[in-house]
Amino acid sequence: MTSFPTSIGTADETSITVLGKDLADDLMGQVGFAELAFWLVAMRRPTSGELRVFETVLVSLADHGFTPTVLAARLTLTGAPESVQGALAAGLLGGGSRFIGVTEEYGRFLGDALASVRASGRELPASDAEWDAVALEAVRAQRAAGLLVPGLGHHLHKNGDPRTPVLFAIARQEGVFGPHLQLFEAVGRVHPEVLGRTLPLNGAGACGAALSDLGLPVEILRGFALLARTAGLLGHLAEEMRTPIGLDLYAQVERDTDYRPPPEG
């Protein structure tokens, strides 16, 4: 390559340019961080309604207590207190198929189902009954493939994730309750017919649907979940510095370790 193109940012001796705007004159103090994050990925400014939903998603994913990602971050800080960046990275690296990453998985599941409808030449549903038929087809195909349906169930919120109805309501209020959220809602209605039990629609799945309805590419959805969780991890690391628990965790595991020699041979 003879040049390295970017539309994100550049700098010279006297100025910094981000997204075609002068950082100091046009963005600082005038654009919020969430709006900038959306803009950097989508290459367009969100509408006020889109921004409210986007910020709701970020807040909903910021923290969920002493999760494995948080424990990884805190214990890394215990072992390397001089390395906040290492502790933060340790927590983010745990964002996968069981924690945080389901946001991307559900966006992909819904996107594939909607793409299948369009590929067949059908129009997107216009009624709840039609959405239910599409959802039933998608859930059955997922189970026939031997796969779990992402976005269903929660290890703690077994009777309903408190985040999901709030996100639904805000998306409706702001006029951005699009096809991904409509299909997600339909999955909640029809999945018991396939699974034989009723599971709650979890917040991470709702976030994946909402972000997809904002037009954000599915390949980047996990990045937004990690962006949100970064704030929570920073809070935990600051708390670990003030009132550490890492050494106590280590001591308890060491005390309760049940060493079992491997079988001979």
Summarize the structure.
The chain has 265 residues and is mainly α. The chain is built from 12 helices and 3 strands; from the N terminus they run βββαααααααααααα. A 3-stranded antiparallel beta sheet has the order 1-2-3.
Task: Describe the model.
With 265 residues, the protein is mainly alpha-helical. The protein has one domain (46-247): Cytochrome P450-Terp, domain 2 (Cytochrome p450-Terp, domain 2, Orthogonal Bundle), CATH 1.10.230. 60% of the residues lie in helices and 3% in strands. It contains 12 helices and 3 strands, in the order E-E-E-H-H-H-H-H-H-H-H-H-H-H-H. It has helices spanning 23-27, 33-42, 48-61, 68-79, 84-93, 102-119, 128-144, 163-173, 179-195, 203-213, 221-242, 246-256; strands spanning 9-11, 16-18, 21-22. The protein has a 3-stranded antiparallel β-sheet with strand order 1-2-3. The mean pLDDT is 94.
Task: Give keywords.
Cytochrome p450-Terp, domain 2; 60% helix; mainly alpha; 265 residues; 3 strands; three-stranded antiparallel sheet; single chain
